[in-house]
Structure formats: structure tokens, C-alpha cells
Amino acid sequence: MDIERRGQWLRGVLDLCVLGLLRDRESYGYQLAQALDTAGIGPIQGGTLYPVLLRLQRTGLVTAQWREGTAGPARKYYQITDLGRAALRQGGRDWAAFVTPVTGLLTERAER
């Protein structure tokens, strides 16, 4: 896959992917990065992920709380808010409305 294109696509949906991961449980940055990689999104560096988390926090879509670690440094845990859940629902609808016609165009072109 073209790395530059992948990066452009990712910038458009990384916030929704993070909210999706936080929908069912709170998490900290490194754990979120691992979950994104496991989900097939690919490796996400902290320099990309942490600004997204900060933006989500500043806009009220997530809250954050520092907690002492049992075996290591304190971690900042993120939790989705009700506003974040609403943004995730709307973003999911918007993404589906966008990706469906794009997929149709790409599929039609590939079959010709």
C-alpha cells in the first residue's frame, strides 16, 4: 500500500477509530496504539496518536485521568463521553455514506 496515501486516509478517520476503541472500555495511549495495529490499521506512532487524543479531550469527546501504574510509571487513561458517543455514531454514518460510493466506483472501474 502507498504509505503516503494510507497516511492521508488515516488522518481523516483516526479520531473515529480511537473513539470506536474507547466505546466499550477506557484505555491508555500505548494500549490504543496496539489495538489499532491489531485491528489492521497499522502501527501508529505516539507523535500521531497523542495529538489526536489531546484534540478529542479538548473538544469534550473523551476525558482523561492519570493513574499510578502497578509496575511502572503513571498512565493517562482515556474514556469516551456521551458527546464522544454521539460523535462516533454520526461519524460512523458519515464514513459509511462516503466509503460506500467510493467502493462502488473503485469496484466498477476494476471490473471493466
Polypeptide structure, described:
- The protein is globular.
- It has helices at 3-22, 29-38, 46-58, 82-111; strands at residues 27-28, 62-69, 72-80.
- A three-stranded antiparallel sheet has the order 1-3-2.
- The model has no long low-confidence stretch (mean pLDDT 92).
- A hairpin with a 2-residue loop joins strand 2 (62-69) and strand 3 (72-80).
- It has 112 residues and is an alpha+beta fold.
Low-confidence stretches: none
Average pLDDT, all residues: 92
Distance between termini?
22 Å
What's the overall geometry? globular
Number of helices: 4
Share of β-strand residues: 15-25%
Any idea what the radius of gyration is? 16 Å
Largest sheet data = 3 strands, antiparallel
State the secondary-structure class.
alpha+beta
SSE topology string: HEHHEEH
Number of DSSP strand runs: 3
Largest beta sheet: strand ordering: 1-3-2
Q: Summarize the amount of helix as a percent range.
A: 55-70%
